[in-house]
């Protein structure tokens, strides 16, 4: 059983992922990406994954766990957290621990092994984003879960172990400290000015335009004012909404256009970089928030975190966001 342990100084929770246990002598040896083997995510190999928990695109009355799908969601075969069991919170002296209860799922974005997320038509990419929503709506019914993190690792340097296009979700029994800090920062701004900080940022970026990359009817894409790494890019809805899962499918279609355009421009500008993206949303148990605003952060894996960053919490970024945005505006997307 995985375990959650709380750092008693800063309140940070750490997952001790026993399901992914490696021998101490193996730590530090970087595993090579899996290539050339039978891909469990390809159409026709549905029996190589756990049974699906969500599917889109398969014809009505077709058998489950069979070909014919566009998007498929399955439990992760090597989960960081386990869905079965109780939290069983315990103290060990001054330390706090609990069972590693949660959900860990894989969203297989296409049946085609060679098709990247950004190459999908807008309608198919919309189905991927709608699958995100459907899984949030389902998993939030489990009262053990407090936060659900949706994310994508693309490329070996960004943490992907399989080439086939996929993203992941992890449902957590606690709200991560980083999320709490972001929500509290937004709340402080709202308490002071009675406005959402994200709405203010969207307004300023649309007016200033030096960091603007793309916009459509519903979403704006820009390089943030203080990016942690080169070409960090945010995708933010123009309308105020704190929870990703309440977005209707038509607006998720606009989000799909913005996300696909962003990823294609990053690929054209940087030569298919490894990247992560993370959906930032309101915690599952919280009411809708006037101060917080859901959004997507895209982080190309172009720099490494080293001693200064670990020791200070500062990030060193050699590319000004204004230059990155100008470069992205000029490439085809």
Overview of this protein structure:
A hairpin with a 2-residue loop joins strand 5 (about 90) and strand 6 (about 95-100). This protein has helices spanning about 120-140, 175-195, 195-210, 250-270, 305-310, 320-330, and strands at about 5, 15, 55, 70-75, 90, 95-100, 105-110, 145-155, 165-170, 210-215, 220, 235, 275-280, 295-300. About 35% of the residues are buried. The longest helix is centred in the C-terminal third of the chain and has 22 residues, at about 250-270. Helix 1 crosses helix 4 (about 250-270). It contains six helices and 14 strands. With about 325 residues, the chain is of the alpha+beta class. About 25% of the residues lie in helices and about 20% in strands. The radius of gyration is 20 Å and the shape is globular. The chain folds into two domains: about 5-15 and about 35-175, HIT-like (HIT family, subunit A); about 180-330, HIT family, subunit A (2-Layer Sandwich), CATH 3.30.428.10. A ten-stranded antiparallel β-sheet has the order 3-4-7-9-8-13-14-12-11-10, with helices on both faces. A four-stranded antiparallel β-sheet has the order 2-1-6-5, with no helix packed on it. InterPro entries: ADP-glucose_phosphorylase, GalP_UDPtransf1, GalP_Utransf_N, HIT-like_sf. It comes from Anaeromyxobacter oryzae. Keywords: Carbohydrate metabolism, Nucleotidyltransferase, Transferase. This is Galactose-1-phosphate uridylyltransferase. One of its GO terms (molecular function) is nucleotidyltransferase activity.
